[in-house]
Specification:
By secondary structure, the protein is α+β, with helices and mostly antiparallel strands. The protein contains 7 helices and 7 strands; from the N terminus they run ααααβαααββββββ.
């Protein structure tokens, strides 16, 4: 056997072994773990905790979450976030947060080129327009832009958006 064939075989075996090990030790966190591990979602995580939705979003799912960043929350009128986090406003906070969640794991490749209304866990629908591509103004959820798509979690998928969605 020549040396080149031996090296190719060794590289193939090592790569196959590495891929096999990765598949067996999938360590993706759930939606809450991923959000909690990203400082850009600290306001969202605080809101999820205040609404009592942690256990739900750590559940089996699958869920699709349109996750607003801290900047999206900061863009709300002054005092809105603080007011929503008050215990007496838990029902409204829950309504807003569940409006960001769609049952099932929906990735961007399933949406590209389409326009549709999708039912949320809250009960209303969001309008998704993915006719323009995968990122930025390419995919809109109501009037929010998807800035990062397809963050895969063990129980669903997260799409980062630049505005907080408010149900009417």
């Amino acid at each position: 056997m020549n040396r080149r064939t031996l090296v190719k075989g060794a590289v193939f075996a090592a790569t196959a072994g590495l891929l096999s090990a990765c598949a067996q030790t999938d360590t993706r966190g759930d939606i809450v773990d991923i959000a909690a591990g990203n400082p850009d979602f600290s306001t969202l995580v605080t809101a999820v905790q205040a609404a009592g939705l942690v256990d739900t979003l750590k559940g089996d799912g699958p869920f699709t979450v349109f996750a607003p960043t801290n900047a999206a929350f900061a863009a709300l009128p002054d005092g809105t976030v603080e007011t929503l986090l008050m215990p007496e406003n838990k029902a409204r906070l829950t309504e807003i947060l569940t409006y960001h969640v769609v049952p099932g794991a929906v990735t961007s490749d399933q949406l590209i080129g389409q326009r549709m209304n999708v039912a949320t866990v809250q009960g209303d629908t969001v309008h998704i327009d993915a006719r323009g591509g995968k990122y930025g103004s390419g995919v809109k959820v109501n009037d929010a832009n998807v800035t990062t798509a397809d963050i895969m979690a063990s129980n669903g998928v997260i799409h980062v958006i630049d505005k907080v969605l408010i149900p009417e």
